[in-house]
Fold these 2 entries.
Entry 1:
Amino acid sequence: MLITVVILQLFHFPVFVEKNNLPAICILILLYGYACTSMVHVLERVFNEASLANMILFCGNAFVGLAGIAILLILDIISESEATDNARWVLHKVLMLSPHFTLGDGLLEIAKNTIQSQVLIQFGMDTYRDPLTQNVVGYHYIALFLVGTALFLLNFAIESDYFDAITVRLRSKPRGPAPREAAGDARAEERRVRDALQPLRLRTIGNINAGFVDSEDLGSLKKHSSVSRGTARDVCSTLRLRREYGARVALHDLSLGIPAGQCTALLGENGAGKSTTFSLLTGEIHPTSGQIYLLGQKVNTRDLSQGLISYCPQSDAIDPFLTVRETLVLYCMLRGIDDREHVIRRTLESFELVKYADVRAGALSGGNKRKLCTAIAFMGRTPLILLDEPTSGMDPVSRRCVSAAVRGATRGGRAALLSTHALADARRLAARVALLRAGRLHALAGLDDCLRRFGGGYVVACVVRRGGSRAAWRGVLARAPHAALRVLHQAALHFLLPLRATVNGKEIETKLSDVFRLLAELQMSCDIEDYTVNQSSLDQIFLSFNEKTSIIDAIDESTVTPRLLRRNSDELDSVTSL
Ligand SMILES: Nc1ncnc2c1ncn2[C@@H]1O[C@H](COP(=O)(O)OP(=O)(O)OP(=O)(O)O)[C@@H](O)[C@H]1O
């Protein structure tokens, strides 16, 4: 609006700055903004996609507005009978449902009124009607206000899930059977989640607002969490949760349970759908289809924000103008924590933030901001803690604080969902690892299982006499065709021997003794000077999992490029043995 006023003044559109026209136009634009905002929010709720909603609003409305004005002008010109006049009147009122049309038509009315008066004043007639006090754009104001209010109420009703059934049907598209990739873990987890969906009697964990201090009696909670890991009840679960952004599917029918007393790690490359999962679980965005269950009850997006979930988002959600202590006080107030002093002191100590207590959050280093954000998620005793890459940018000491907090929370029976690229964190904390790829759950298993199934095996690093590495690799392939090349340099050969592999349709298992036998044979026939054998780590699994094709398939001696070698060498640098 301000911009419009400045433009009108700058370019001095005489018609619009005449007398009371400017304030009248400002009111018109204000009401237009109100109607458009309400409309775009409704479209966003219905189509579940902000950019599509904006496109429909602006393109659709602009088309209706321009076409409407053009049709009315034509009807004006050809107007001969009363019937045409009536049709024009009705059409005019119907078109007023479009804010763009109403704005354009209102501006035309104001311009017409002013130009007419400027012409007639030459003949001594003052026909100027004040648009603020006389009915020049009165109908336009009313139309914009009514459309805006109706859409605002509709938006409110959709937000309150009064139209849940209808909007879910509008959003969902017919889909074929579950993809082949969904077999195995994903299907098994879906079955487990369905079976486990009997309401938990536990509604809250003690007093969820009491903070995480030790004084709280966690007896009842521990009873729930003391069940063995495999059978722990899910605090939260998703059933075929799906989120689409236009044609792009960010999350494909995710069925995942987050059991009490455990940390579940969500791993995946960039864009795999981790943050989307968090946004869905916190009610920040609506699912395209699928359900979320919290403590055994089916919940909607509104229920998700009722205080049962703590969330550390990927980007720091803190007010830069508040000090660390003030930030914690604010969150204590929001959570309704009574014993504030005690909880804040414990939080500052646990996350080693005592010396920054009176520093403005905006002046903290990146890692300390992250710590503050994570600390907030551990205040209160919510049954579910969601941590989206909490340790990114943290030093090892700070990572330890976060690990301790997660362990403390899960020991107390709370459930944690942790998304991380720091695989060491996942290895330290997670009982189960969910591997996401391109929005699909590809694997869900304990660490040992992942080791066994995804690239788990033995990493062999050989020092070869200069120039002998290719011959050594040929020797490895002749004896172990299932070996996967990692590094091939003049004097270095690194390869992975998977624990299990299928060679010529035969399932083979590699034992440590087989590895040493192979290396002994290689030492006899090739120029291997020295070697080390490590069991592959979670990092290795992650890399193997993300590889589109096995390197062994893609590589032949002549196609080994320096880039590929460098890449594999870098990958190996991150491998730490278990
Ligand atoms: N608002 C949006 N509009 C369109 N596409 C989106 C939007 N938000 C996410 N996406 C898409 O959804 C997919 C999953 O994104 P998401 O942010 O969940 O990935 P991620 O696993 O959290 O990645 P990272 O590790 O980089 O944080 C990506 O392909 C992304 O481009």
Entry 2:
Amino acid sequence: MTSGGDLLVIRPKRFVLPMWLVVLGVVLRWLARFCWWCLRHPVAVGLAVAAVVLYAEHGVLGVVVPLVLSSAVSALWRWRDEASWWRWCAGPLLGRFRHVFVYRRAWHEAMTLCGLAETYDHRPVLPELLRVRSDQALDVLTVRMVRGQTPADFQKVTANLAYAFGRRHARVYSERPDAPPTRTGYWALLLGWVDRVRFRDRPTLVYLVLVRTDALRPVVPPFDASPVPDFTALPLARRENLGTWSLCLLATHVLIGGATRSGKGSVLWSLVRALAGGITSGLVRLWVIDPKGGMEFAMGRPLFARFAGTSFEAMADLLDEAVTVMRERQTRLAGTVRVHTPTEADPLVVVVIDEMAALTAYLQDVDLRRRIAGSLGLLLSQGAGVGVLVVAALQDPRKEVLPFRDLFPTRIALGLTEAAQVDMVLGDGARNRGALADQMPRWAKGVGYVILDGTPEPLRVRFSYVTDDDIRDLARRYPAPADAADILAQVGRKSTPEPVRTPLPRKPSGPLLPDALRNLLDPNGGSEPR
Ligand SMILES: Nc1ncnc2c1ncn2[C@@H]1O[C@H](COP(=O)(O)OP(=O)(O)OP(=O)(O)O)[C@@H](O)[C@H]1O
């Protein structure tokens, strides 16, 4: 039996460090951290050292004079070339400042409250803020995700992140939002290699873009109409980073969804303006259908090769004729090219339809509606490759109203009335990825979301506003050629006939029926050879 008195208490001998050693350890640790910080921030350290040396040598003037001089140079630089000033001077400085004083301070709280902090081994694990780059309008945060997270986790809480950092708009990209620059000249090869490293695929990172200054608030003036439009990049809108968003109008149809008075007209007119040079030279023919009796487009009538604004019969005829043009081109180009290249002899035909639902859903004449639906279906499914394109605007993107929604490869969503409509226009999941087209403020006429080629993340843009005076001016300066309407004359042109297939020689084969039965069935009694 064991009693309390029998217990043996064993205590390890405590090793007590002397006080001076503890202090030395702490000092060494901070010194090592400071050296590491200096190594990582050579510019800041260099400037601080230079300031100290100048102060020691020349007193206060030694610091003030360089400061004034560098401010003057900076102002001059900004005046001469603001873009490069932001890129190389103001952007990095502002980004550094905001990294330390804005984002790092609120990071822990924001990540935890937005549900992006995880727990591992009883310790909180946070996404790591690696870098902040700023420009005139945006802050781009490079973030390393916690193991097990995906960009979709960030995209789900995009709005929460924006408001957590005191902003209204944010966007989450799984790849770098900026494309690698095009390098030319002597150093192109070397810089190309550097870019390959800078722009390499980094699946552990996510890019959070916060809109600091909403560059889309001011109305965007119309872009210059180029005499020779580049169909792969037609400038239509301003981006959040103050860049220009350009539409590629080759081999694609465009759908514009937007509630009433959201600015669909500005998208269509921006496009007409971008194409204006080609209209006059005969490179593009605009065939316009304006079911609102010509309220939107009649003012620009001289620009259009064909126009239908009052009679639905005429609109159906116009679409039928577009199908005829398409068929003729298919016959002529089959076996020659896979995608049509617009030329003056063989122009790009763009069928512009304002308020498409008037043709597909609200038209009461059922036969006419069916006829229009048939032509539209053909154009949308086969016209893109042969240069007969459809650009259509509509208010209500439901399937019942527009059954061919999925046949439009390029989609633009302006302000919409319901959250569900955003995905109907831009495709599934677009709203979750930040396309909040149903939450447009009242001032945001002509503001919309587009999906960039090759990236799933939506882009917020504002289309240029073409005023009535601009339209009149366009119509005066860029009228369509006098013979533009008779493109159908080309259909009469001799088209390549379908190649005739000569049958392969076949061995003479014997009768399938026995002779006795064949003679029985033959009305001539088998006398005539068959
Ligand atoms: N890009 C823009 N920038 C600034 N204001 C615009 C822009 N686009 C349109 N607006 C303003 O919004 C108003 C409505 O524009 P618009 O008529 O183009 O809208 P809509 O969607 O075509 O309307 P509806 O559905 O009636 O055809 C215009 O009168 C104009 O004042």
